[in-house]
From TrEMBL:
The keyword Signal applies. This is Peptidase M15. Residues 1-29 form the signal peptide. Keywords: Signal. InterPro entries: Zn_M74/Hedgehog-like. It comes from Bradyrhizobium aeschynomenes. The keyword Signal applies. SUPFAM superfamilies: Hedgehog/DD-peptidase (SSF55166). Residues 324-346 are annotated as: Disordered.
Length: 346
């Protein structure tokens, strides 16, 4: 008998989004005669063309996902447009042609990899980093004007689109093989379930970073681990095929300001729902996009201590309360004994 978890994994992995495609396969209960030849139906995104109706399938024999990937890349600099309070930012994902393939997924791992890589391709590789600049300035000291060197820090835009392709080319792998193939298999399945559910919730998740080897970690900017200690796949963690981390954002919104609001919503959703899929944010606000398996070393090391501290504080309060109750009871007993002794002597 198939467990509910196995059924969910199998059902979801039969509905995988390829770049520019939507794939759906019939369930195992379908008749063998109906699976001999796959039926392919091309669906265009034009609003004037008459839509083609694929062969009808019952809910028990078909599972379809209507997620798509973007056909354009957003510019780095955009003017922030106002968003009404409570309004969800509009998605930057453009409507694209889709192909529905009504067939069985021959390889679950390959389908999961393609889905995750589609999310990677649609995410802009932009962030903010702190840049320190040293300038010579003139200041007044003890009535005299002197020149001193001061350090100034500012936030600047960082486009790291070129880094993953360069790292992949360096080891002779394709982008999909490098970024997604380098991650641990069990973590990829957990990440697939998490982001698939987030996509269904309308949060439009995207992946900005997957596997990183030592070279890729070395050229990374901003907040990062040591070159060989990254849980993204550093050599100390096992290297290629053992990546246990990814960075996620939302592509909802027409501007960077709107996408930032949508990304914060995605992170909050992961905090509230990710554990049910086995994925969480180990560092919370210290490295918000970073996610990893909740049963992994990284999550236990950075999140479990906080839980243990809270439990220890609760235990401490209970112990102090019990001690105070014990002392109060002991004093009351001493008072009663003293009163009884005075009565006898009197």
């Amino acid at each position: 008998m198939m467990s509910s978890q196995q059924f969910t994994t199998r059902a979801l992995c039969r509905s995988v989004v390829l770049a520019g495609c939507v794939m759906a396969w019939p369930a195992a209960a379908a008749e063998p005669e109906a699976m001999t030849t796959p039926v392919v139906a091309e669906v265009t995104a034009s609003t004037t063309a008459e839509p083609m109706t694929p062969p009808s399938l019952s809910p028990e024999t078909a599972l379809t996902t209507a997620s798509i990937t973007p056909s354009t890349v957003l510019p780095a600099e955009e003017a922030a447009l106002p968003t009404a309070p409570g309004e969800t930012p509009k998605s930057t994902v453009a409507s694209a042609d889709r192909i529905e393939i009504l067939d069985e997924c021959p390889d679950i791992d390959a389908c999961v990899d393609r889905y995750l890589f589609a999310l990677y391709e649609r995410a802009p590789k932009l962030d903010k980093i702190r840049e320190t600049e040293r300038r010579v300035v003139t200041v007044k000291r003890k009535g005299r004007m002197v020149k001193v060197t001061r350090s100034f820090t500012r936030l600047v835009d960082n486009d790291f689109t070129w880094k993953d392709p360069k790292a992949a080319e360096r080891v002779g792998r394709s982008m999909a093989e490098y970024v997604i193939g380098g991650m641990d298999r069990s973590f990829k399945l957990k990440l697939f379930h998490t982001l698939h559910a987030a996509e269904a919730a309308g949060l439009a998740p995207g992946i900005t970073s997957g596997f990183r080897d030592d070279y890729r970690q070395e050229i990374a900017s901003g907040l990062k681990a040591a070159t060989n200690r990254s849980y993204h796949g550093g050599s100390l963690r096992g290297g290629y095929g053992h990546g246990l981390a990814a960075d996620i954002v939302s592509v909802n919104g027409a501007t960077r300001a709107q996408r930032w609001v949508a990304t914060e919503q995605l992170w909050k959703w992961v905090d509230a729902n990710g554990k049910s899929f086995g994925v969480g944010r180990p560092y919370l606000d210290r490295d918000p996009p970073h996610v990893g398996p909740v049963d992994g070393e990284e999550y236990a090391k950075h999140r479990a201590p906080a839980v243990k501290v809270a439990a220890a504080e609760t235990k401490k309060h209970k112990r102090l309360a019990a001690r105070q109750e014990h002392h109060a009871a002991k004093r009351a007993k001493a008072v009663r004994a003293s009163a009884l002794g005075s009565r006898r002597t009197g």
